[in-house]
Amino acid sequence: MGDRPELPCDAELVARLRDQDPAAFALVLDAWSGGMVRVARSIVSSPASADEVVQDTWLAVIQGIGSFEARSSLKTWVYRILANTAKRRAMREGRHVTWGLVPGEDDGPTVDPARFGGPDDRFPGHWLAFPAAWPSPEQTTLAGEVREQLDAALAELPERQRVVITLRDVEGYGSDEVCSILEISAANQRVLLHRARAFVRGRLEEYFAATALTGSGTGTEVKQ
Amino acid sequence: MTDLNCDELVELVTGYLDGALDGETAQRVADHLAACDGCTTYVDQMRQTVSALGSSPAEAELPDEVRDALLAAFRERSD
Q1: Using a CB-CB distance cutoff of 8 angstroms, which residues of chain A are in contact with residue B60?
Q2: What is the pTM for the complete model shown?
């Protein structure tokens, strides 16, 4: 996000799209399709399906731009169509996809309770051992291997958690926008995001612990 | 109001970072963090996770033929 030429404001864009200005359509198509492909991939099973979902979404936008009522931003409206199109596609692929919370999967502790003191310990509910320090952010965000760990961790999440963390943390949307795109409550959005982030953090923790032991990976010592 | 335990704090991190906690709970989180290195590290690592996710995401773009087909579909609608 933010690395493209700035788009005209929504009012101007919508007017030009309704006036059937191909340059305006090319602008939004090129500005948004990359992010849309990433979001579609977080929901459907293959890159080829994701491309088709994005294509179907744009076709729906072309058909529907006349009925866009500006209750949300144009981009949010396009992404809502995208999310619904991808969800339907995933269902056709035989997977049950919901953005709602699933009891038994979206509740319970996000950090292993064994890491905290039990009722008989000196400090119940407190860390038995503090989380180990990680390499500095500069070192970690530059490492390609960390990206691989992140992508592998995202792939393990249920779709509803993966789509929320993709929209929030990969694409950079705010919580209000994500609620509007997925048509979920702020509370549910937060639960899904929290569980997804805690899971991904846990995977990074395992990765850094393993690389610190072997001295490989980023090649950095854990900081003092 | 009782103090938070670490195992409670770790479940509040996302709400805390989003500014979505009620004032009293946010204060309890802040008070706990001021006194607990373990939870401070945990919150920092959640922040690092968020920031790592947002940096250099996988390149993704529509195949050229799909882009061309969409531009054509838009123009056809214009005719």
Answers
A1: 34-35, 37-38, 41
A2: 0.90
Task: Give residues 98 to 137 of A whose Cβ lies within 8 Å of B.
Answer: 109-111, 113, 116, 124-127, 130-131, 133-134, 137
ipTM of the complex: 0.93
8 A C-beta contact, residue A111 and residue B10: yes
What is the rounded CA–CA span in Å between residue B75 and residue B79?
7
Provide the residue-wise pLDDT of chain A in tens; the chain has 224 residues: 445 668 999 999 999 999 999 999 999 999 999 999 999 999 998 999 999 999 999 999 999 999 999 899 999 999 999 999 999 999 999 988 999 999 999 999 999 999 999 999 999 999 999 999 998 766 665 568 888 999 999 999 999 999 999 999 999 999 999 999 999 999 999 999 999 999 999 999 999 998 876 654 444 444 43
Q: Partners of A116 in the beta sheet?
A: A127
Query: What is the rounded distance in angstroms from the CA atom of residue B38 to the CA atom of residue A126?
Result: 9
